[in-house]
Amino acid sequence: MEVDQALVDSIIAFIARRFPGDESEGAAGMYTASGRLILSTAPDTLNDAVSLCHETGCLCEAYTLDDPVTASACVYREATDRYVILAPCGVCQERLFLYGPDVSIAVARKDDPTEWTKVKLGELQPHYWRGALE
Question: What is the pLDDT of residues 46-68, one digit of tens each?
Fold first, then answer.
């Protein structure tokens, strides 16, 4: 499965349910090879040095289930109730590469970060370091 509007909508609904109110919050969602939808969010921490990305829970669950990730999206709700799409950070890109360069990734459109388009992980990171070793 690839990133689709249903995945993004599921993440937005999860944010609204998990974090009622108008505070800035985010969450991620992933599809797995079996078609499973996994959702997660970053836990609050008292020390920002030990914080985790929103995607981490999804990645851990998929790995535990031995069900490869095929698609990933991350959504952030600003305090203004505007939802923007966030591409995975470098650490999450590294984690996603466990599943190969064809993982479908939601990225914000350049003209409107509340809208998204999809790219393959290999397109997001065309100079992935392991490519030199293959």
Answer: 998 999 999 999 999 999 999 99
